[in-house]
């Protein structure tokens, strides 16, 4: 796996200024790129870690989603350029503020608020109304080397193949932290292939607090940053991953993950065992996306999830 992480630079600020944007400012940065606020309701995203063809697909995916009436905004790409070999997209800046700027840390925050859980249910229910499209099926998830659906007609089978590929990347590193990893991989693959076929819908795949914007009342106003694990898939996969990643590192993280998993099972009708299985899949396929040597927090989070996950254990 090639490690990609783009950071803000003065060179990009100067580039946007030369294009006529009077006061460009850094806004956010992560594994897929760096985002700059340009003013006048515009942002620019400087991409990394994705081939140019895949970015074209991602723009088609955003257009596919935008065709459906949702109770919140989603990204709209207005222009694209290539500068010094790097792809830049110019997009409408989405409104609202991230739901949570930092992990819940106080005893009073052990239980998520009703506004927070209601917002998550709104987002999950809305995305599950958007049918999966060919562009979504053609996307490559972060860290992999081929479109997720290539050679497959069922989402569970596509995931099973992805689990095997991901285990070959740096599985020896993960095995040092997860007892009997090879057996866990086989259990997860077998459980995936046994899942019934379901209609697929749009999957964001990275519904963490910075990617869900809300207004002052807690109502979702925007869902942004599609691409990390965006695909066409089972809505239960979206719910499972969201429950697991909404609070990854706070002192109440395990409690929040368990509570959200139970909530989504009850409110959305997803079998609890399927949610646990998809959470194991997420850990097995993203464990090495930030560093290949197991030295980062995400790796240790994935290993801990696999050690306690009932779908991965004997």
Automatic annotation (TrEMBL):
The keyword Nucleotide-binding does not apply. It comes from the Bacteria. Keywords: Kinase, Transferase. Pfam families: APH. The keyword Kinase applies. Residues 25-249 form the Aminoglycoside phosphotransferase domain. SUPFAM superfamilies: Protein kinase-like (PK-like) (SSF56112). GO terms for molecular function: kinase activity. Gene3D superfamilies: 3.90.1200.10. This is Ser/Thr protein kinase RdoA (MazF antagonist).
């Amino acid at each position: 796996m090639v490690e990609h992480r783009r950071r803000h630079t003065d060179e990009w600020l100067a580039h946007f200024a030369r294009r006529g944007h009077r006061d460009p400012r850094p806004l956010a940065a992560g594994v897929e790129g760096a985002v700059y606020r340009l003013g006048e309701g515009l942002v620019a995203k400087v991409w990394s870690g994705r081939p140019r063809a895949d970015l074209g697909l991602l723009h088609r995916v955003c257009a596919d989603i935008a065709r459906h009436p949702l109770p919140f905004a989603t990204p709209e790409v207005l222009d694209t350029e290539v500068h010094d070999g790097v792809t830049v997209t110019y997009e409408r800046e989405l409104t609202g503020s991230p739901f949570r700027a930092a992990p819940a840390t106080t005893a009073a925050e052990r239980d998520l608020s009703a506004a927070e859980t209601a917002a998550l249910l709104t987002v999950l229910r809305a995305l599950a109304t958007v049918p999966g499209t060919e562009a979504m099926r053609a996307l490559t998830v972060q860290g992999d080397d081929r479109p997720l659906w290539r050679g497959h007609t069922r989402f569970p089978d596509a995931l099973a193949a992805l689990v095997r590929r991901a285990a070959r990347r740096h599985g020896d590193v993960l095995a040092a932290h997860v007892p009997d990893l090879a057996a866990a991989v086989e259990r997860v693959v077998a459980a995936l292939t046994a899942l019934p076929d379901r209609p697929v819908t749009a999957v964001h795949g990275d519904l963490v607090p910075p990617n869900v914007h809300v207004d002052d009342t807690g109502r979702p106003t925007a869902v942004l940053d599609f691409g990390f694990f965006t695909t066409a898939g089972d809505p239960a996969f979206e719910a499972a991953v969201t429950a697991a990643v909404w609070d990854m590192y706070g002192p109440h993280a395990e409690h929040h993950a368990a509570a959200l998993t139970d909530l989504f099972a009850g409110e959305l009708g997803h079998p609890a065992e399927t949610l646990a299985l998809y959470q194991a899949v997420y850990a097995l396929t993203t464990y090495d996306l930030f560093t290949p040597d197991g030295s980062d927090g995400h790796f240790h989070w994935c290993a801990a999830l696999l050690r306690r996950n009932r779908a991965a254990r004997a």
